[in-house]
Amino acid sequence: MTESSRLSAVRASHDAVAVDHARLLTGVLEAAPLDRAMLGAFAECVRGGGGGAVADLGCGPGGITAYLNGLGVRAFGVDLSPAMVAVARRSYPGLRFEVGRMAWLDVAEGALGGVVAWHSTAHVPPGELPAVFTEFARVLAPGGYALLAFEAGDGRRLPEPAHGHPVDLDVYGTPPGLVAERLAEAGLTEVARLVREPVTNETGPHGFVLARKTPTA
């Protein structure tokens, strides 16, 4: 599958499940204290590093964007799916949400204090991660932070129905060490990592990597 056809399939699948996905995510963070801890640490790091806007990339229905704003971070959301962006705008009308691609952001070089990819690299083949992480590094200011959350596995799960809708979404698990290695190759140095066991309806462990772009001297 070409990158263009893959992105079209991801967009169409997320458009189909947007409303149900938003409903089923309600309360998920409340059941995941370690997830909240990583988001809290990220927000504190961004504020301590001079602030700056934060892009929640692959923001879906906007819950993580809103949570970060509640932690005192100026976050905005970007998602490939217009339907997801529409749901986010309805749910959080005071926040900014845009349609866009993680690997091709409409953001100036060095403009952001942070980027978050909260399970949004799940549909990115491992071979395409370097391009995505290079774009993260491009838009981050020196000293800015990146936080990734992902399935801590190794391999690909084939498409299966989501929220009662047929979808065309391969899901890739990624070992945390590989994520940290690819981030480092893009110029983002690992600060911390966490792997936790599954909660609620998750099928496997989840990983988190916090990384930082080298500050200027």
Description:
The chain is of the alpha/beta class and 217 residues long. It is built from 6 helices and 9 strands. The strands form 2 sheets. The protein has a 7-stranded mixed beta sheet with strand order 3-2-1-4-5-9-8, sandwiched between helices. A two-stranded antiparallel sheet has the order 6-7. The radius of gyration is 16 Å and the shape is globular.
Question: Which terms would index this structure?
Answer:
alpha/beta, seven-stranded mixed sheet, globular, 217 residues
Question: How are the elements arranged and paired?
Answer:
Layout (H helix, E strand, L loop, with lengths): L2 H22 L8 H16 L5 E4 L5 H8 L4 E5 L2 H10 L5 E3 L12 E7 L10 H11 E12 L3 E3 L13 E3 L2 H10 L2 E9 L9 E8 L4
Parallel strand pairs: 1-2, 1-4, 2-3, 4-5
Antiparallel strand pairs: 5-9, 6-7, 8-9
Helix pairs in contact: 1-4, 5-6
* Envelope shape: globular
- Largest beta sheet: what is the strand line-up? 3-2-1-4-5-9-8
Mean pLDDT: 88
The H/E string reads: HHEHEHEEHEEEHEE
**What is the count of helical runs?**
6
Structural class, by secondary structure, is: alpha/beta
Estimated share of beta-strand residues: 15-25%
Could you give a short description of this structure?
By secondary structure, this protein is of the alpha/beta class. It has six helices and nine strands. It has helices at 3-24, 33-48, 63-70, 82-91, 129-139, 176-185; strands at 54-57, 75-79, 97-99, 112-118, 140-151, 155-157, 171-173, 188-196, 206-213.
